[in-house]
Write a structure and sequence with these properties.
With 430 residues, the protein is of the alpha+beta class. 41% of the residues lie in helices and 19% in strands. The structure holds one RNA strand of 86 nucleotides.
RNA sequence: GGAACGAUGGCAGAGCGGCCAAAUGCAUCCGCCUUGAAAGCGGAAGGGUUCACGCCCCGGGGGUUCAAAUCCCUCUCGUUCCGCCA
């Protein structure tokens, strides 16, 4: 949620910043929010003045009663009673306008960082680094899509996953399952020096899913368990961001760095038929997420640090990769600045997004009410949040299967994963 | 799932419907005292919103009343007991 006060003091600045997202309808929404805010302030002032008089009169009633002046007390009560009527009307109007403004603000995206590159969409995302580890050409045996080679190796059994749970669910078996878990372990171990490991719940309340920005706008993309009013998390970002919601953190305790390995659940509504093969897009997958709650000053450096950490893990696997920055037209609604790491998969001949690292400025923290207190300052301020995937399993798994495929059809396991593979060094055909 | 009790400031814990933003203790900060500290003494100190006056905040929501931390309803969470259970 953007700061309404910013809208008040610098409406033109907000307009200009959001115009960079190249969504014309946003500007209309901002104007509407400004109008609602103005109206809200008028009503609030009027309501508060009425309340002040009621409070005043009520005190008088008490004093008059005590003094035995019953008639005067009755008069004051009558006045207060009629004021109470108008107070109720004003309060109702206040609540209506306030709710309308709130709903509108929930849907207005974050302002992009001044240095975020301009652009209309995906095609304008600038390349920041790479390609790294990219061979001049790939031998024919690497040009096999993982859904074919992995199925042949017996480590991917999507046919049975579909039987059990329906389309777009996957299942790894044997060393394939071990490999998936090894990737998570690697990502956790690579970040354990700085990040506290958390094992959060994967079912969360509506309030929690709203705080991170998934609701109300993306309700169709999340699995809902209606009977209990719970939602399955699409990413560990959701519970981790809300870990400190409603709390005031001491500046000395920041940044709070957390990581978690969880299943992630996505309905992928609207993407039926796209990327449905193999492990490119699935309803349930494993991911290791890293996340920071920080002061505004700490945030830029943390963003760099988190990108570097995600990169280091990908690089250590020996996969061809590149880093791109997300331009204003392609940025997610909560993002302030954002980078993607992509891995090349020769079998499907595609760059696969395997990590997305973003700085949310105070957008999420305002929704989630995460604040910080400075030692010498009165009051509190809204914290900043950042998060990113340290490693998302399916696409990295797929890229390993394709990139490490040998001429005989076997797949060599990257060295950094060997400690987690129970002695296996290669996945061979049966 | 059933029953009883509970939820108040950083923590603990008072609080006859009006004198309650809220006692007291601990913790914190600033003085005094001391070579320095502890103890003792004196003082300061909640959050949100507003340019400000003010308004709002005693788990959330609703109600009664001129007036609610206080009464009523409801939800959530916690504790204890019973039941069920991997």
């Amino acid at each position: 949620m953007i700061d309404v006060r910013l809208l008040r003091t610098d409406a033109d600045g907000v307009r200009a910043a959001l115009a960079r997202r190249t969504k014309p309808e946003l500007l209309e929404q901002i104007d509407q929010a400004s109008r609602l805010d103005e109206r809200l302030r008028e009503i609030t002032a009027e309501r508060d003045e009425t309340r002040r008089r009621v409070n005043e009169l009520s005190k008088e009633v008490g004093q008059l009663r005590k003094a035995g002046e019953t008639d005067a007390a009755e008069t004051a009560m009558a006045t207060s009673r009629s004021l109470g009527e108008s107070e109720r009307t004003l309060a109702a109007e206040h609540d209506t306008v306030s709710e309308a403004l709130h709903q509108l603000l929930l849907r207005i995206p974050n302002v992009p960082h001044p240095d975020a590159p301009d652009g209309a969409g995906e095609e304008d995302n600038p390349l920041i680094k790479g390609p790294v580890n990219m061979p001049a050409e790939f031998p024919e045996h690497q040009r096999v899509p993982h859904w074919e080679s992995a199925t042949a190796l017996g480590i991917l059994d999507n046919e049975r996953a579909t039987k059990i749970s329906g389309a777009m669910f996957t299942m790894q078996r044997g060393l394939g399952a071990t490999l998936a878990r090894a990737l998570c372990q690697l990502a956790l171990d690579n970040n354990a020096d700085a990040f506290e490991e958390i094992r959060p719940p994967t079912l969360v309340t509506t309030a929690t899913l709203t705080a991170t920005g998934q609701l109300p706008k993306f309700a169709d993309d999340a699995y809902a368990i209606e009977r209990d009013d719970l939602w399955a998390i699409p990413t560990a970002e959701v519970p981790l961001t809300s870990l400190y919601s409603g709390e005031v953190l001491d500046e000395a305790d920041l940044p709070a760095l957390m990581m978690a390995h969880t299943s992630c659940f996505r309905r992928e509504a609207g993407s039926a038929g796209r990327d449905t093969r193999g492990m490119l897009r699935t309803h349930e997958f494993d991911k290791v997420e890293i996340l920071a709650v920080a002061t505004p000053e700490q945030a830029p450096e943390l963003l760099t640090m988190m990108v570097a950490r995600a990169e280091r893990t990908i690089a250590s696997l020996g996969l061809p990769y590149r880093i791109i920055e997300i331009c204003t037209g392609d940025m997610g609604q909560s993002h302030h600045r954002s980078y993607d790491i992509e891995v090349y998969a020769p079998g499907c001949d595609r760059w696969l997004e395997v990590s997305s690292i973003s700085w949310f400025s105070d957008y999420q923290a305002r929704r989630g009410d995460i604040r910080l207190r400075r030692p010498d300052k009165k009051g509190t301020e809204i914290a900043h949040t950042l998060n990113g995937s340290a490693l998302a399993v399916p696409r990295v798994w797929a890229a390993i299967i394709e990139n490490n495929r040998q001429a005989d059809g076997s797949v060599v396991i990257p060295d950094v994963l060997l400690p987690y593979m129970r002695g296996a060094t290669v996945i061979s055909p049966k």
